[in-house]
Amino acid sequence: MSITPDHIEKSLKNAKRNYPELYSSRKEEVEKLITELHSWFDLFSELYFAKLFGYTELNAMKHREQRHHYTGIFAAEWVFARKYGEEFLPVIRHETGEHFQDDFFMLDDINKIPDMDDYSNPRFLRRIRGF
How many Cβ atoms from other residues are within 10 Å of residue 64's Cβ? Predict the structure, then answer.
């Protein structure tokens, strides 16, 4: 799934509303962080699955398997807090949650954020998408 301008625009509006002081004082960094964070989560989609194999339901799950889980969330916090500073952690955490809600539309169905092992569990895959 590509990051669309509408998706980025929604995230920037949220950041401006939710973190007005940080956004007004460090607008360029917030904008760059949001774009990079969403691109980081979707790296495997862009590089491998969409371009090489087409974007099928199975490839969508393989893409999500790479970073769309608890370990991916913690890795994103670690990577981007070190790059931008810990004062950006609230934005990073909020945007990570938004990305999961937008990209991982079945979170409401499974009532949890997956862990890495869920993607190798056939019952998990059947439950979320009927595989």
Answer: 24
The residue to which tokens 């995230």 are assigned: 11
What is the 8-class DSSP label of residue 124? H
Q: What DSSP assignment string belongs to 46-59? A: IIIIIIII---HHH
Chain centroid to Cα 51, Å, comes to 19
Cα 111 to chain centroid distance, Å, stands at 17
Half-sphere CA count of 119, side-chain side, radius 13 A:
19
Q: Any idea which residue has 């190798």 for tokens?
A: 120
Indicate the SS3 state at residue 79. helix
Per-residue pLDDT reduced to its tens digit, 23-57: 999 999 999 999 999 888 777 666 665 566 665 66
How far is the first Cα of the chain from the last one, in angstroms, to the nearest whole number? 20
Is the entire prediction scored with pTM above 0.85?
Answer: no
Residues 1 and 10: their CA atoms lie apart, in Å, by 16
